[in-house]
Every structure is written in C-alpha cells, then in structure tokens.
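Subject: UPF0311 protein Runsl_0518

B.,
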Amino acid sequence: MELEFAFELRVEVSAIQVMGDTPKGNRRMIPITGGTFEGKNIKGKVQPGGYDWQIIRTDGVAELDARYVLVTDDGALITIINQGLRHGAPEVMQRLAVGKDVNPSEYYFRSIPIFETVDPKYVWLTRSVFVATGVRKPDKVLIQVYRVI
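Prediction pasted inline below.
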C-alpha cells in the first residue's frame, strides 16, 4: 500500500463554540468560514458555512467530524466529511485550545476524508480511500490529503 499526495486544504475557522459536557464528552463546534485547496489535479475554495463538530473525550482525545463544501475553480461542488482524532499531552492540547501556535510534532492529528461529487472531472475523489494529516493553527486548519493506492 502506498500514499499519493492529492491536495492541501487550508480551512479557515472562527472561534470555538463550547456547548459543554454531554453524556458523550465535552461538545465543541468550530465554524468554518472559508479557505482554499490546491493539488496537482484540483484547486478551489472552501465554501463558508460548514462546521467541525468535536467531542473531547474523558481521556482527552478530540473526536473530529468536519462537514463542508468545496467549490473548484471550474465550478464543481464537492462535499467533504472529514472524521478523525487529535490528541497530545494535556499541556499541548491546552495551548491548542487557547489558540497558540503549536508545532504539529507535539500532537497526533489524523483523519479520513470522504468526498461526494457528480462532476466527472472529480469523480476520482469518490473512487478511492483517502487519509489525511492535520495541523491546527490559531485561525485555520491545514490538511494534507493523500490517496491510498
């Protein structure tokens, strides 16, 4: 099994909205306000309006469930559901939570994006498994997407 770089997402986000403790864990929502993406065969913008729904488990692991829409430069619509995990030492996660810039080597951030589109030019996104690595910045998330070949 090999990985082939597909594209990078630069997802802009606004302030974390904290719901609080639920029976599943501490619920947080992060509004997605825009962004861009680019790779060898794809380029465009992240449409504002999506959300990253997170549960912070009692063991400190963040379960991520981000859902938003990509619009390619040639007008194709692509939905993405990106689910994953992020965790690190408690002090590292606290720095991330308050908006500090933290070196990605200090925490684990991996996800599995799933795409949907009807555009024939981008149907390749619906016919492969993808994995991703993430970097949390104070105002954005950088996601490197790889196709499993």
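The chain has one domain: 3-148.

T.
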